[in-house]
Amino acid sequence: MQPEAAASTQSPPASAAPASWQQELIEKLLGQSVREQRRSRQWGVFFKSLTFLYLFALLFVALDLVDLSGTSTNGHTALIDIQGVIASGEEASADFILTSLRSAYDSQQTKGVILRINSPGGSPVQAGIINNEIRRLRQKYPAIPVYAVVEDVCASGGYYIAAAADKIYVDKASVVGSIGVLMDGFGFTGTMEKLGVERRLLTAGENKALLDPFSAIKPEHEAHVQSMLDEVHQQFIQVVREGRGDRLHETDDMFSGLFWSGETSIRLGLADALGNMDYVAREVIKAEDIIDYTQREGVVDRFAKRFGAVLMNTLTSASLGMK
Questions:
Q1: Do 257 and 179 touch, CB atoms closer than 8 A?
Q2: Class of residue 114 by CB neighbours under 10 A (exposed 0-12, middle 13-18, buried 19+)
Q3: How do residues 264-298 score in pLDDT, each as one tens digit?
Q4: CB 172 within 8 A of CB 263
């Protein structure tokens, strides 16, 4: 009798089987709900963080635009930085530099302008536009002198700009000059022959393929380009002669593309004297307070560019992950 009682006690109830699949379904639904809530919270944190960064960037720009240094009752020296390659789209472009110049000259407290140059050169067009604007502003505001102060390098297009200043100050070890013009490139014709690669190029216009790196250069094309470079070179030389005047002690190699130390450039008349930014502001302009008028790419603009790229990558990755 006892074994039968034990057997009856161990047998499962008839409702146990249907209860197991119901419980499993409920667990799946709850798990899915938890995952959806977690995902929603993650996106919420992401967008809140993004909003915070955007507002912080706006606050930083607003503080940067406010002149916290104040202005002296005796006036100030306006500083404009010309740093790096002179080219469209760069901070040392004509757009940025011209805006900086006009802002500096528009201020009634500006007693003099310093162009702090540290540039290896760049576009002759951009440099020419800046040179022309400096000369125009010098004529419009004859009481406000403009001085170029060279740091490490003032070469090629950098010197093209400096030549428009009233005076040029250098460090004894600065690199100054490189009055010349170049156009460089590569040719791959020999490599293609070794690899057995045939160049197939069709053009409408017999000179349309001028300077094509995969074709042998033609003598008439080389002569045409050289003529153009010589023309721009003469424009550069004329700008230097007009800017430096009688101070220039021309030598046979002055316009050959060579460059010299700051100390030698003074002897050649390419520069006027030794001096840094603080010295020129204090001793030459007589306005020791320096205010930076340099127009630069805003923090919001840089942030927008980078955020746009990151957002595009994120959306692309999310789209691929959903497939």
A1: yes
A2: buried
A3: 999 999 999 999 999 999 999 999 999 999 998 76
A4: yes
